[in-house]
Amino acid sequence: xxxxxxxxxxxYQSAIDIKKNPALQSRIPGKDAVQCGVCxxxxxxxxxxxxxxxxxxxxLKTKYSSPHQANVxxxxxxxxxxxxxxxxxxxxxxxVKTQETTNDDETKYFDYTFDYIxxxxxxxxxxxxxAILNLSEKTVVSMAQKNHYALxxxxxxxWVEDFPLGPPLIIEVMTSSTxxxxxxNRTQISMACEDAILNQQEHNAPGINxxxxxxxxxxxxxxxxxxxxxxxxxxxxxxxxxLADYISKSTALVLxxxxxxxxxxxxxxxxxxxxxxxxxxxxxxxxxxSKLFAGPISKSGSxxxxxxxxxxxxxxxxxxxxxxxxSLLNKAPICGWKR
Length: 339
Description:
Blueprint: E1 16-17, H1 22-27, E2 33-34, E3 40-41, E4 50-51, H2 54-57, H3 70-80, E5 89-101, E6 107-119, E7 121-125, H4 126-133, H5 137-146, E8 151-154, E9 157-164, E10 169-173, E11 177-178, H6 189-199, E12 208-209, H7 210-230, E13 234-240, H8 241-250, E14 266-272, E15 289-295, H9 321-329
Parallel strand pairs: 10-13, 13-14
Antiparallel strand pairs: 1-2, 3-4, 5-6, 6-10, 7-9, 8-9, 11-12, 14-15
């Protein structure tokens, strides 16, 4: 981000309390607490690090100032079809919550937060915005001023110069999670970071929680892709290639079947270090290699045709029945049951 770590948007509880450790106070003066600042975890020497912070993969809050993500931004721009030379605006952590009553008097909810939304902008009269959003003109002006939109008076009224009106591009950044860690072994991420600061190489890193990542992504992949289509835009998921490989191995979705040069209903853009891992770990490694996996949510047709990205909710391979008996035999029952 070319800025002090902010916890990555999802790791605020991993902040380090400087006051509790005098040795850290001398190393990090003038602070009561800091975020641990860990964006990647390398489990074994020579292996590709696992990215555990979304800011490492893509951070747009600094107005594109960081040179270390230039390749990611360029590949994303190309695959998303953003026009070269055209100005776009970016919004972060956009929450959309709404509800609607069906003909059967059943209430349906939509409640999601989008990592980033990119959209073109254009001049729009406040009067017209008021009609589109069903808000009073006074409310529109107040919201525009509060959020630093440009306002201009013209002969035919007041205009918002940079009102978002283009097809939205939704960007979702999905990186790996860390395991909870163990206090005794000091593998909680804040503890591991403290030890790394004070003892350099003498620290124990937490593990990677693959299943939690998959569960978070699968619960949103189809929904957020559908809403992008419904809004006339598209959704692109950014992941690390090792995470993409894990998804392919642990679900019925075989991503290699969907390598594409153009976007579709569901889009996953993966990035990897390639041979960069062989270079010195003292420098920041660029994410140079990218692949776009794109396809329909579901396909219809013969049985030997893949079903589409809906396969991500299906198991990769059913374990043999004997496995459950083996697992049960290896675990004591907690009680009896009698009807």
